[in-house]
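Structure, all two chains, one model.
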Amino acid sequence: MTFGQEGSLSAESEHTLMQQLVAGDEDAIRTLYARFGRAVYALGLRMLGSAEAAEELTQDVFLAAWRKGSRFDPTRGRLSTWLMAIAHNMAVDRLRHERGVARPMLVLVDELPEPVPGEEEESTLIHRDTARRALACLSQAERQLLSQAYFFGWTAREIAEAAGIPLGTVKTRLRTALIKLRAANSEQAKASARMGEGGVE
Amino acid sequence: VSCLDVRDRLSEFVLGLLAGSGARDVQRHLEWCPGCRKEAEELQEGVASVALGLPFADPPSSLEHRVVDRVQAAAGRRRSAPHSGFRLLVVATFTAVMLALGALAWGVHETNRTASQQEAFHNTIDRLTEVISGSASRVADLTPTRSASPQGRALVYSSPKSDDLVFVDVFPAQAGSGPYRFQLYDRAGRVISGGKLSRTSNGDFLFYDISSRDLSGATSATVLDARGNAVLIGRLHPTTAG
């Protein structure tokens, strides 16, 4: 099976792609990289702060994807979710290793990207477009909270202590933000599916 | 842990903020609880949006090749292991080199000990590199952390066709030094190989390990003294020979 670099893959295609990746198939590696290489690299650049570290992370993430590929279960989530979770966890591990127990200074700015309309080519960007639209549904406070947790690895307790708000409130807001993102993603997927059924290319 | 406890920690779990037993407790619960697992999967989709929503950055064009090479090398290692013929060749050569090193060391004049032994080690590296030329072998010049620290070098050989190999030689600055331990680290600082160095008859300390462990991710090496203090440190770089 061959895979295009545009559009979403079906769960079956994602499963097949990962099977081919595990087998070391070059086309499968290149397909996965074409779809997610830039996203993983961007995440590494954003979290680790240097091109060198981002390149190392990208290589390690795809190697980890190969190692863990047989465990990928398309019935439990999309390939993009699975792969970016690997990337994020590896980046957080490196941040913690580099910084030890010390946490970075809390940066009280909105770290999450503003949902800007796509300024890049269409190929491979379907996930990002969906994600950006989803991020647009968050309030400024939710984006900031999620940023502190996601990019800086702050725990809910650390955020609560730094911001002087109850721990329970932080946890609730984090969950609410993630649920909002997920719901927005689902809506986007349904809308895309409707467009597809309507014959829109 | 109960579903209530897990739900309370689920956001932090999917954000990778739980560590140690906290993460393990949640993970174990998710393995048997479909309700909490479904919630975790939904939250995880939200988490992925954060990364996927970042403005893309263009990596260097060579990165794709490096990714393909690393994955294919790892996949090849799995498919071909054990590759007994090549492994035997490496082991045989390695053994011969070790013997040669010992023989050379016996002939070293005491006043010129370190320089000669370093030269011997360079010869060792060269000979070993001849065998594994074109493959992923890297060497580290180990830098003393103190003036009285020993000197040494480390060689790491990683190939998809055979077991990986790490070889370390340490030359004590003064008699009676040691014992020493060696540790090899990956980029994340995890120890991926290591052990106690053995004292040879000529006073050197050697360590080698040939195993199926993947050492391709090794980036740095450290020699520790009996108190656990780092006495030699170095970063691995590709060998120039071959």
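Helices of chain B lie at 3-14, 20-32, 34-52, 62-80, 84-106, 113-131.
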